[in-house]
């Protein structure tokens, strides 16, 4: 079992880790990117190695400041968050993530050596998706990470169809359908919609969208992406002026809502 180390210079004797597609099964087992936030270098080293060998990409942060910097510069599929850190409290950071549109739906698995029931309850109430007390078996952590990733992936049919409520995106047929009826999208608009839909709940900047589109004649700087987004909304939204599927995050980019229609937005 893995536990935290006790160092004479450490003031955090009771601590534990945050982190931000194709088929859901593949996403949950290979190449998902995790952010492990814990100031216990020995623990993060062991856990990081274990999860890396299991097929995940793992980045570690020993402080909340480092975590914020990492999350501002890279995309993560899941955060493993320690409850107590040198520069802040994991519960407060979890609340901060849930207030940020970019990370509102990012899965958070909270770890802590403090196993009090109230800590677990508070963590879950503040937005953590799961809670694992220290010490723990690495295999259980891996299983919980996979379960959270599976839970947050869109429903797939034959690994080629993304379903979000009434909207269906068939990548094999290169067609989007709303209420079973084909949507009138150009090839470029379909590719743009697919890029967004493959990262539901995650804010993508224009540069990130351009990187994903690779070679398409869309220029990030002449606002043509914005024009295509407007046209996509005109086709897939019930009210394009009040979108619930493709949302704008001012100054950051766009996010495809993970939950739509009656379920709510991103």
Tell me about this structure.
With 266 residues, this protein is of the alpha/beta class. It has helices spanning 24-29, 41-53, 64-73, 90-99, 117-125, 138-152, 187-197, 206-213, 224-236; strands at 33-37, 57-61, 78-82, 84-85, 88-89, 108-112, 130-133, 155-157, 161-164, 167-170, 175-178, 181-182, 203-204, 246-249, 253-256.
Give the integer mean of the pLDDT values: 80
* Anisotropy-based shape: elongated
The portion of residues assigned to helices is 25-40%
- Enter the CATH topology name of the largest domain: Rossmann fold
CATH secondary-structure class of the largest domain: Alpha Beta
Second rung of CATH, namely the architecture of the largest domain: 3-Layer(aba) Sandwich
Q: Going by CATH, what is the homologous superfamily of the largest domain?
A: Response regulator
Gyration radius (Cα, Å) is: 20 Å
Structural class: alpha/beta
How many individual β-strands?
Answer: 15
The ordered H/E elements are: HEHEHEEEHEHEHEEEEEHEHHEE
Total tally of structural domains: 2
Please describe the structure with a list of short key phrases separated by commas or semicolons.
alpha/beta; Arc Repressor Mutant, subunit A; 266 residues; disordered N terminus; 15 strands; five-stranded antiparallel β-sheet; five-stranded parallel β-sheet; Rossmann fold; elongated
